[in-house]
Hints:
The structure holds two protein chains of two kinds. Chain A has a single domain (1-448), classed as Anaerobic Ribonucleotide-triphosphate Reductase Large Chain (Alpha-Beta Barrel). Chain A has helices at residues 5-16, 39-54, 57-68, 83-86, 95-108, 126-141, 160-176, 222-232, 237-266, 287-293, 304-322, 340-347, 353-359, 378-394, 435-440, and strands at 22-29, 72-79, 113-119, 145-153, 157-159, 188-192, 213-219, 270-274, 367-372, 399-405, 414-416, 423-425, 443-444. In chain A, helix 2 (39-54) runs parallel beside helix 5 (95-108), helix 3 (57-68) crosses helix 9 (237-266) and helix 9 (237-266) crosses helix 11 (304-322). In chain A, the strands form two sheets. In chain A, strands 1, 2, 3, 4, 5, 6, 7, 8, 9, 10 and 13 form an eleven-stranded mixed β-sheet that branches. A two-stranded antiparallel ribbon of chain A has the order 11-12. Chain A is an alpha/beta fold. The N and C termini of chain A lie far apart (54 Å). Chain B has one domain (24-112): Alpha-Beta Plaits (2-Layer Sandwich), CATH 3.30.70. Chain B is built from four helices and four strands; from the N terminus they run αβαββαβα. In chain B, a hairpin with a 2-residue loop joins strand 2 (54-63) and strand 3. In chain B, helix 2 packs antiparallel against helix 3 (82-96). The longest helix of chain B is centred in the N-terminal third of the chain and has 18 residues, at 2-19. The A-B interface holds A 1-3, 5, 7-12, 63, 66-70, 250, 253-254, 256-257 and B 18, 29, 31, 33, 57, 59, 61, 68, 70, 72, 82-83, 86, 101-112.
Amino acid sequence: MPFAPKEIAETIRMIEAERLDIRTVTLGISLRDCAHPDLKVAARRIKEKIVRQAGNLLPVTQAIEEEFGLPIINKRVAVTPIAFLLDASPEGDPVLLAQALEEAAVEVGVNFIGGFSALVEKGFTPGDRRLIAAIPEALASTERVCSSVNVASTRAGINMDAVALLGEIIVETARRTADRSGLGCAKLVVFANAPEDNPFMAGAFHGLSEPEAVINVGVSGPGVVLRALQRLGPASLGEVAEAVKRTAFKITRMGELVGREASRRLGVPFGVVDLSLAPTPAVGDSVAEILEAMGLERCGAPGTTAALALLTDAVKKGGAMASSYVGGLSGAFIPVSEDAGMARAVAEGALTLEKLEAMTAVCSVGLDMVVLPGDTPPEAISGLIADEVAIGVINHKTTGVRVIPAPGKKAGDWVDFGGLLGRSPVLAINPARPSEFIRRGGRIPAPLQSLRN
Amino acid sequence: MADQSESGRIIRALEEHLEDKDAEESRIVVTVIGRDRVGIIARITSVLAGYQVNILDINQTLFRDLFAMNMVADISRATASFAQLKRSLEEAGAELGVKVYAQREEVFRFMHRI
């Protein structure tokens, strides 16, 4: 027998009982050859190219699911940041291109398509400005299009004009989707140091240094890590880290297998495995519960940042051994509404916005799926973005902000987005305002790369 | 003597086959889990035989009335698609009141072998 019965049983248990799955297979597609002075022509080219390139994505991934017995939850498409195409066509409404993306996504059968994006960490082109201004309408008038804006990087510093603008864009996006509790904001991420190969939505886009097309895979598996720690029982934190590493290795191997196979069958190069622990609202599929299994009474208690640092680092160490190419965000996601344990910690008062911000210094993304009071003014959101991207810029890491100022809701109210986006109480935000600071605008210079203390 | 060298040759050939990474694409692992009863192996193996799927290895574990079986099988000469084979196995499992999984062998190699 090439495998011990115990090994076969372990794999099946991980899939059946512990929700091991491939969270996403994301096909990145370059749209650089779709630019055209007439925006209508560009829109047609975009749709045609995506449908041509991604036409087989669904049948191929479904066959892989069946043959390997591994669920692949999401199949998605990421494209070149659309702002680059807008510079070629100075006239016309950018929402046309969002609609082309939406139609292509429907036709190829993917639930999200990412790349209504701009990279403005050092400044705006006219296309960048038009794209950002069109975000509220694009997200309100489409279901599947996701948007992201990179406003800061360790090499460029922080574009505070963009930070100020995005505060307003987020509030306006919430207002346009008020009938769905501001759901449009769940499809918008503001980044520092955005990765060009991230397969996870809403922040996925096909970076400028990427090939014509590429397959990136996002693995998941908080449930598997949680059960591994529960089985471990009382053990030192060194042993906890070791158990997480071993589990992350096994989870990531599944991503590597699926990525290689999808790449071979689609005839598209394999990019990276993003080895993030991505929670879902299902009980037991929670990053917060992993932290609690380490011995915290509730996620958010003193010690939470240290526990999360251990978890993120051990996931990276185990995963890096398991895959030839690791990239994307890689670490642990801590979205609030998408993680039932995080939402419970907020509801019980154990987890606050400030503690979440501290946690983002050691996790893989940032303030993710955080629901704010509906009357939060744009400058307060801009202040939140500035703080979050500053953490990323100074620490050479990706940070992102995906917050939803839910119209008509106040701190403590529950908001339910449905499905994988989950539900969460509205978090309180500090009532003191950063208005003058945000109004100054300009650029916060890139940080010193030495004297690192 | 002749018999021994014959079986030695067969074992060596089988070992080479089991080590052959190219052959992995044609190997599947069938796992059956459930309450023990008469005829589980007979029923499952007859489904495989019906599609010309050759069983390379088989392992059975019993704990009280709990039954677990793993099989490695070669589907290179199978007369049906993987999807159809899998459905037939799942149907046979449902009749027996047991759960049947069929997966390409690479899943286990990737997870448990470096």
